[in-house]
Amino acid sequence: MSKSKFFSGQPIFNQLLSFIPTTLIDKVCRETNADYYYKHFKAFDHLVTMLFSSFHQCTSLRELHTGLLANQHRLHHLGIKHTPRRSTISDANRTRPVAFFEKLYHRLYNHHYQAFSPDSRKRKSLVDRLFIVDSTTVSLFSNVMKGAGVIRMDGRKKGGIKAHVLMTAKTELPSFTILTEAAKNDRIIMPQLELLPGSIIAMDRAYVNYKLMKEWTEKEITWVTRVTKSMKIKLLTRNRLKILNKRKGILKDWVIQLGNPLTEEKSPVQTARVISIYDRNTKKKIHLLTNNFTYTPTTIRKLYQKRWAIEMLFKRIKQNSQLNNFLGENKNAISIQLWCTLIKDLLTKIVKDKLTEKGSKKWSFSNLTGFLRLHLYTYIHLMNFLAEPEYALLQHNKGPDQINLQLKLFSF
Last residue of a domain, which of 315, 344, 359? Predict the structure, then answer.
């Protein structure tokens, strides 16, 4: 392999960590007092340790500790002089503030994807302005965090942790996330969302909040969701449908009054729009609700269909991460491991997007994750190798004539 192009003096793990500015880590560390009461195992060391575990998909503290010992000399490049003991990692997972990892993820996202953050004013196209909100639950084998769902035959219920996520459709990354017990209602994330005028949010009907939806309307934020049976709706006018829309499965386009005048505080009255669609794939009718009167019915349908992209995000994270075994049996440790999983996913997505920007070979997310896991401590230039893997292989695997020529040099 040509040293000039594919060789690197730093292993791939170090190159990945270079995407996290040390100034950012230091700033978040000071804000959250993450190093308070810690003499040796600092927040940066803890972050590196947990990212090592996340990339290698370690299933136990022993496996993590052994892996760190085997690569101890390589960790010196990062300034980590001593390999932490299992007890040290366990104690830090139990006591270090989760806020350090939470803030670091959000700051890192804004650092690399500022143009697509909820408070960015640079977004122009519909996809750039589209946000999707949903939640996913990770089951736990112990009832550390209150679970949700059916109680088992033994009268107990599995614990679970729920990630409430606001995803940007363009980046396919969480721009805002909070972690709670699985039993918490999905709407807990809604008051914490900060969207700029002109933003678009697609959400499931579980997130319907009349008061917040009216506030968004007043701020010129478009929302798209589905009609629920319990909604108080009054028909105002029927919009005429074009023949082209009818051919595309649009059944009706109504202007309605949403909310109940008798309970103005809980469900304030506002004018909205209902679009009924016939889905030829499922052979079912879908009734969409929106506050936008400008977009065509087909555009509203496309915006709502984009909502399924967040399910692909959840699937991607769960398939390419080790979330069956946790390195601690307390809420703090579980939360830290999940935040580091999200940071790992973000770093992998940064690499993938940079390759796309260069017009290089397209890697699937699962293949890229597998490559990083297997070659985390290989001394190759990550971006150059991923851009031209076939060329790198040709340089490494020389032809038979070249091999025979080299063998002759050592023949007597």
Answer: 315
Q: What are phi and psi of 362, to 5 degrees?
A: -85, 125
Q: Which two tokens stand for residue 79?
A: 């300034």
Residues 309 and 371 occupy one common structural domain: no
- Nearest C-alpha neighbor of 173 from the set 231, 115, 116: 116
pTM for the full predicted model: 0.88
Residue 404 covered by a domain: no
Q: 3-state DSSP call for residue 23? A: helix
- Count the neighbouring beta carbons within 10 Å of the beta carbon of residue 174: 23
Q: Same structural domain for residues 191 and 47? A: no
- pLDDT-derived band at 102 (thresholds 50, 70, 90) equals very high
Same domain, 263 and 202: yes
Nearest partner of 90 among 67, 62, 69, judged by Cα: 62
Do 47 and 161 lie in one domain? The reply is no
Q: Are both 154 and 291 inside the same structural domain? A: yes
Question: Do 247 and 123 belong to one domain?
Answer: yes
> Domain of 251?
101-315
190 Cβ neighbours under 8 A, 6+ residues apart: 133, 207, 209, 212
233-238 and 130-140 strand pairing: unpaired
The residue whose two tokens read 């408070």 is 119
Specify the number of domains making up the chain.
Answer: 2
Distance CA 191, CA 176 (A): 12
The residue type of 71 is: N
Residues 301 and 275: beta-carbon distance below 8 Å: yes
* pLDDT tens digits, one per residue of 219-249: 999 999 999 888 888 999 999 988 888 888 8
18 and 59 co-located in one domain: yes
Q: DSSP H helical segments within 306-330, as ranges?
A: 309-319
Distance (Å) of CA 364 to CA 92, 291, 300, 369, 370: 34, 37, 29, 9, 10
DSSP state, residue 7: B
